[in-house]
Structure formats: structure tokens, C-alpha cells
Amino acid sequence: MWLKSDRMDVLEKVWTARKLILVVLIPLSLLPLPLIHPTSEACCAYVLIVTAVYWVSEAVPLGAAALVPAFLYPLFGVLKSSEVAAEYCKDTTLLLIGVICLAASIDKWNLHKRIALRMVMIAGAKPGMLVLGFMCCTVFLSMWLSNTSTTAMVMPIAEAVLQQLISTGVADAQDDSDTIEGPDEDSDKEDNLDKNQLELLYRRESCVKQELCTLSEEPNGVPRNTSPGQDFHKQSNGHLPQISIRIPEPQKPAEKKPSPYPTKRDHMICKCLSLSITYAATIGGLITITGTSSNLIFAEQFNSRYPDAKVINFGTWFIFSLPISILMLVLTWLWLHCLFLGCNFRETCSLSKKRKTRREELSERRIQEEYVKLGPISYPEVVTGIFFILMTLLWFSREPGFVPGWTSLFEKKGYRTDATVSVLLGFLLFLIPARKPWPSVFTDKGKDEGAVKERDPDPLAPMITWKDFQRLMPWEIVILVGGGYALAAGCKVSGLSVWIGRQLEPMSGLPPWAITLLACLLVSTVTEFASNPATLTVFLPILSALSETLHINPLHTLIPATMCVSFGVMLPVGNPPNAIVFSYGHVQISDMVKAGFGVNVIGVVVVMLAIMTWGVPLFQLTEFPDWAVMRNVTDSL
Question: What one GO molecular function would you report for this record (predicted)?
Fold first, then answer.
């Protein structure tokens, strides 16, 4: 017995230290690879496998695991220390810094809350339209903010609406058919009771003499000293047969488990709205190149690997991904509606005021109260909105493609990127005062300045401070993206990517769409259990080498894989927005798996449709481009 307990203690200690054991054993078990084959390819493969295992298992924090190439590449002689260090700060890092400055201003002055509440007020409180309204505002915010930040901002607003819905449902529980017995059941019970009483009355009248019926009965027909459900017999005079009468026991109502939701339908509404927000955040992140870290990783690795390819910028990505997001938004809304709310769209999506119930009117009133609490639009919100629009316009007009952009006004070409605009406007937010220098005729000056004074008494306080920026800046993602760039640079210099491409030559018989579909399915499966940036960082060099070997336009596989890596929506560990929504307690893992599988299928189908239709003329996918040919020639040399 004591041996069993000791064994359990040892297993428990091993399980507790599993991450430390993994961190130590993985490098040691793979060490023969660079020792037996001391080539650049083998050394680079060793670093790549160790880093990938650390990322997938999360044995160490993602940012810490991204630092592995910084010391292993110089130790194995793959890259110089200065060359590795240069990979950790790229153009996309500055782009992210500028976007976070704008996001800090949006968050500080509650512009996101005003936008979200306004869009929900327009949509109305009908369950179907409410879900669609929240999804639209989440998609719009997620285009410019991170998916995690957007979910964390929108979920409290949705939770307030849901709590209002639940509290109203408790008050109306007596009128809801889901929580009381149906009228048919009540009428059946009454009919049975009347039938029993008539039968007992007939038995009493059938007695010839009053003294023969010696049973004394209670008004309800149950004999004295006789427990309910017990058989008893009437005394016979020798001519009448003895009759056995069974008095049925009164049925006790079934005890129901206490539930915080008044009805099952209310619970379904909570599930649908909660899941719709995390899916909408994922869909919105696909639209812009800065929407997710995965998009940034793709953009930087692609531009680093193919410097002559001037095809990926904010405008081209937006044109390609916007129709994808619109289709996914509509199909995902339809899928969630049918799954949780049913297919009666006329009842859940009607905009008629005559069809509104009491709880829907109270929910609308609650949303309007939250909007009124924000007060009139303030000067900092106006400035933030102007910067938001200005940044978007400058990104679009830099190199639109069909007309000369504003960069053509400069003599030297290729010096200005989207990061230039982002950092410039982000820097200005640290300088512009949060108090307006002139009196306003549209808003109450006292209220406007009072709100600013509560945040900072300094009359020249800027729109954002460094603390505001630092609170939202995801430094772990910056280092993680830098680690991905370092791995890609090592694969390029060592020749590992060329070796991988040669091993994949047997797949040359497959058509391009089949290779793209396999890549999408593989990436979307792995990303359910591993982080999105880590998964993409591992697969991008492999898919690039595969495309070059099979003479397929690399964008044909890289863009779909980049989008599908964001479809880790089936488990709470798939991405941070899933975990945030799951923490509110409205959904279970089975709900996420069931709904997320449908969203996964929708995403893969829509992405494949896009890359086979409007993606072909946009990126010239039918031909093997010159910039990829030059890459092959350089590698062969």
C-alpha cells in the first residue's frame, strides 16, 4: 500500500514539474542532430524544432521561447549576433507601435464604447438583430484594435444587456411558456380528476341500502384512516360484487435544478451573443494587415523573403479580405442563429415596434441609459476620430495601385511605408493637448473640460501618456514576431528552406487548389491547440519552399494559410478572445466545439472561394511571378 502511495507522490511531482522536464529534455534529446550532421541546415533545423516545441507546448512563455534563436543561432554559427538582433525590430514593429498609440487614445476616451452602443441602438433589441448589431460593431473595432482588446471592451457591454434580459425574464417568468406547464397538461389532469369523482359517486349510488355502504368518505372521496394510494373494498350484501377502488397518489411536481436563466430561450440568447462576439473579433482581425499579429508576421516574412514583390500592402490586403469578412459575418450569424435561436427569423429579426416584448423594450432602454451616461461627444473623442480617419486614408492612398499615391510626390521611392504614417500620427498623440484651445458652441464646455480634469489636472496634458501606451502595448507579441523573423532568416541563410522544398517535390502532381486546401486544413487544425503566431511562424517557411519547388505563386498558399490560422475558435485555449468569453460562464466547452466547428468550415470554404475567384486577378495567381523566380535563382547560387 505504501508503495502505491509513494508511486502516486512521484507521479504527482513529475506532473507538477512537467514543463521544466520538457524544457530540459527536448534540447538534450535533439542534440545528436547538429552533432552528427554539423551542417548549417541541421543546426538551423535543431533551433527551429526546439523553438517550435516550446511554442506549441507553452512550456515557457511565448515571448521567452522567441528568444531561443537569439542565442542558439550565434552558438551554432548560423547567424551573427548582430544579424539576429536586427530581426527583432522590423518595419511592422513600428507599424504596431503607431496603431497601439491610436488604440490607447480610443480606449482612454471611451470612443469604442460610444461606437458599440450606437450601433447596437440602431440594430434594436430583437435577439437576432441584437446579435447582428454586436457582431458588426465588434468586427469594425477589431479591424483597428487587437482581437483580445476588442473582446475585452465589448463583452462588458454585452453582459450588461444580457443581465437586463435575465432580470426582465425573471419578472415575466409566469407568462413564459417555457417555465410553466402547458394548458393541455392542466386540462388533462382536471379531466382525470372529474372522471374519478364521477366514478366514486356512481359506486355510492349503486348501493341498495345506505347501511350497506359503510365506508365513510371525506369530501374528496378518500376514506378516513386510509392513506392515499391504498386499496380498500366496499362491504357487500352478498348480491353486489366487491369492488376494489384505487385512489391515485397526488403527483408531486418534479424538482428542477436552480438555473440563473428564467427560460431555456434566455440561456440560448446568452450563448449566441457571447460566442458571436469572439467570432466577430476573429473575422474583423482578417480585414486589415494590422488586425492581428498573424497578419503582421505574414507581411514581414513575405516582404523579407521576396523583397522585389510589391504586392502586399494595406490597400491590396483590404480589397482581398473585406469580401471574405462580409461573407463570413453573414454566414456565421446565420449559423449561430439557427443553432441557438432557431430558424424563425421573422420573430427574432423584426424591426416592427408592435412586435417588441416587454423585455426587449427594457433592454433597449438599458442600452440607451448606458449611452446617455457617456454624455455629449467630447473634444478628445473628436480628435481621436479624426486621427483614426486620417490614418486610414493615408494608408489607402499611399500606393493604391490604380492611381499614383502620395508617395509619388517624393523624389526618392521606397522610403515610406505604412509604418511611417502610423508612427507619425502616434507621435502626434503624445503632443496634442486633451483640452481644446477654443470654446465650443456644440457641447457644454464645463462638462467637457470637467471630464478631462478628472483624468489629468495639467492644462497641457496630452491625448495619451506613456503609461496609457505601455498599458496596451503587447511587448510579448513584438518579441514573438521578432523570433519568427529570426527563424525565417536562419532558414533562408542556412538553406534549410530549400532542403524542405526538395523533400516536398512528390506533391508536384497535385493541383494548386488541392495543395492550398490541404494547407488550410492542416493549419486550422494545429492552431486549435497552439498559438496562432507560433503556428504561422512554423508553417510559413515550409509553405514558401513548397510553392517555389512546385512553381506555384507563393501567395496562393501563404494568404489562405495566414487567414486560416486565425480560425482557432473551437476551444477556450484556441485564442485569448475565446478564453475571455468562456470566463463569463454562459457557454460550455461543448457549445464552443459545436459552434466553432461550423465557423471553421465556413472560414475555410470562404477563403478557398476568395483565392480561386477575386484573388486571381488581384495577385496574378495563375502565373509564377518573376520575384519568386529571382528568389529560386538566388537560392540555387
Answer: solute:sodium symporter activity
Residue 358's SS3 state is: helix
Q: How far is CA 188 from CA 98, 184, 220, in A?
A: 70, 6, 19
Cβ(165)–Cβ(269) below 8 Å: yes
607-620 residue pLDDT tens: 999 999 988 888 88
Q: For residues 554 and 562, what is the distance between their CA atoms, to the nearest angstrom?
A: 12
Residue position matching grid coordinates 480617419: 389
Please tell me the predicted confidence (pLDDT) of residue 359. Answer: 65
Question: Amino acid identity, residue 515?
Answer: I
For the chain, state the CA radius of gyration.
34
Q: Are 115 and 139 contacting, i.e. CB atoms less than 8 angstroms apart?
A: no
State the pLDDT at residue 233.
Answer: 45
Q: What 3-state DSSP class applies to 217?
A: strand
Give pTM, 2 decimals: 0.64
pLDDT at 353: 56
Q: Cα–Cα distance between 214 and 234 in angstroms, integer?
A: 7
137-191: pLDDT as tens digits:
889 888 877 787 778 778 877 887 777 666 655 444 444 444 334 444 444 444 4
Q: What is the DSSP letter of 223?
A: B
> Which H/E stretch holds residue 115?
helix 111-123
Residue 297 sits at the vertex; the CA angle it makes with 291 and 303, to the nearest 5 degrees, is: 110
pLDDT of residue 210: 44
**Which helix (H) or strand (E) element contains residue 59?**
none
- Please say if the pLDDT value at position 424 is more than 50: yes
Task: Count the Cβ atoms, other than its own, within 10 Å of residue 163.
Answer: 14
Phi, psi of 555 (to 5 degrees): -65, -20
Residue 434 cell numbers, joined: 486633451
Residue type at position 119: M
pLDDT at 32 over 50: yes
Q: For residue 568, what pLDDT is reported?
A: 80
Percent helix, strand, coil in the chain, to 5, is 70, 0, 30
Distance CA 196, CA 169 (A): 38
Tell how many helices (H) and how many strands (E) occur in the chain.
30, 2
How many of the other CB atoms lie within 10 Å of CB of 345? Answer: 15
